[in-house]
Description:
heterodimer; A: alpha+beta; Glutaredoxin; four-stranded mixed beta sheet; 7 helices; 46% helix; elongated; B: Rossmann fold; Ubiquitin-like (UB roll); 4 domains; five-stranded mixed beta sheet; four-stranded parallel beta sheet; 13% strand; disordered N terminus
Amino acid sequence: MSDSITNFTEIDTFIDGLPDKNGALIPALHKAQEAYGYLPKEVQLHIAKRLQIPAAKVYGVATFYSLFSLEKKGKYRINVCMGTACYVRSAEVVLKEFAKELKVDIKATTDDGLFTVDGVRCVGACGLAPVVMVNDKVFGRVATADVRGIVEEYLAADHAE
Amino acid sequence: MSNQNTEIRQVRIAMRNCGIIDPSNIMEYIARSGYDALAKAIFEMQPNEVVDVVKASGLRGRGGGGFSTGTKWQFTAAAKADKKFVMCNADEGDPGAFMDRSILEGDPHGVLEAMAICGYAIGAQEGVIYIRAEYPRAVERLYQAIDQAESMGLLGDNIMGSNFSFKISLYLGAGAFVCGEETALMNSVQGGRGEPRLKPPFPAQRGLWDAPTNINNVETFANITQIILKGSDWFRSFGNEDSPGTKVFALAGKVNNVGLIEIPMGLPLRDVVDKIGGGVADGKKFKAIQTGGPSGGCIPAEHLDTPVDFKSLGALGSIMGSGGMIVMDEDDCMVGISKFFLEFTAEESCGKCTPCRVGNMRLLEILTRITEGTGKESDLAELENLSRTVCDTSLCGLGQSSPNPILSTLKFYRDEYLAHVVDKKCPSGTCTDLLNYEVVAEKCKGCTLCKPVCPVNCISGERKEVHIIDQDACIKCGACVDKCPFNAIIKG
């Protein structure tokens, strides 16, 4: 399933453009994740080589921060906010409903590679609790009854492409 | 209700420009005396005079610690080094808090100007803002604001033609709550795992790249320009002796009016909930107000007259924190809330020190046990004991405060814990493992509507006969309760 990545031009251009290589690891990982969607082994090894730091350090940092993913995510990432305001307004139930609707485990990706369902840290939109983000789009005051509609919206969007 | 609202005056200092100016246009900021404070500092004041004014204002760190900002500046100013840094902590990680996001998105120049003033006061020429990557719009606004200020000579080399130069760069986090701790944040900027360092040495002596560093929170900086322009006495005219000035809170949860508020410190919590918040939503009964996020505590109704300041909230076993304020009602289980916060801290613990890494996990296991109905009465003493150990022995603020939600709920809502461990009941009906769904025979008409909605087919009974729920098979989803037109199914 993982097609090996061999083209590193985007990361190389980014690293070459940095005035200072000190402290460049996290920005480089951000850039790589933006380019490939995740951080497979070959990308981590390449960054280690280019920044001349041990691969273990790259792996240590990549696994420390929750925004970095070592696995490929779905085309549509459904993130249910798990902040306190959303939690007291039943975000957990909404999260479970998405998992049930898509027949997939929480944090996992559907077999067709379309959806990843997960809970995320507070997105700071507590006035709209409970909040669901699908990629960059925000859905506010989501009830379990809205879940099917949101999934269908993206299924239709994918179909139209 | 609306009459009552007007009695309570919110005061905007940190958020004075938010929603009033177009944050993407520096001219609008300048029109509201923007960069006047920086000019005043550079041309009319000595660096130590700037430190003195901030110190005299009594401004305390708005990130939650509450340390005197002026004293922090003084320490860094006193450190001897060729290079020093000013850092802004914009890693707003507390769930249910979005004060810093709003300030950065609504008034980015206010923070940039304050950082430059701080640079002048402590003798630093470089500023770094560490911001969560989860706030893309704030990042965009900051980049834009830095560009605009540099192009007008308000940041960069020889600001306004003076000898003072100051540059600001941005550094994006990658999703780690512990990076809100100042030394962990510095390790992160240096490209490493966000693990805290032992203190001392304090950042004022050895901080970012081992240089003396002054680090303040976004909201702390947002107060600075007004203190410089209007003086420390003016600032002290708001708030109280313990906590001068105002504080921004993110009021959320089960309250009618949710959103950001900026209030003079010392206002009673009751005014925040009832007057500004418009009372508890849906006519429910107030149970608790949670302040300080995962490091804070839950405050019950009998303490609602407590003034909002550092000292009073601390005395109740909660903290001011960065400004999250979540109102909870009778439907919220306080054991469940503790578990919610412990799930958060156990996952966000960086793993460097044992009390936090292992202790929080054990605390979470005990809480999980209690909510699942297998807890014992002795678990409560165990929780208290271990909580104190984790508080006393953890390396950084995360672990030192992570058991606060447990300790405060044990103190004020012990009955609820006892109901879970002794009666195996959840009084608010949220812990599903302690719930039973039952059909009230007198009310059931045998309409059969509930049978097909049950996902596990555990309801039996013929038409016009009283139905029965098989307790062993029931998954407690509540679908039958919602469906029943006669309210014949009750949970308890």
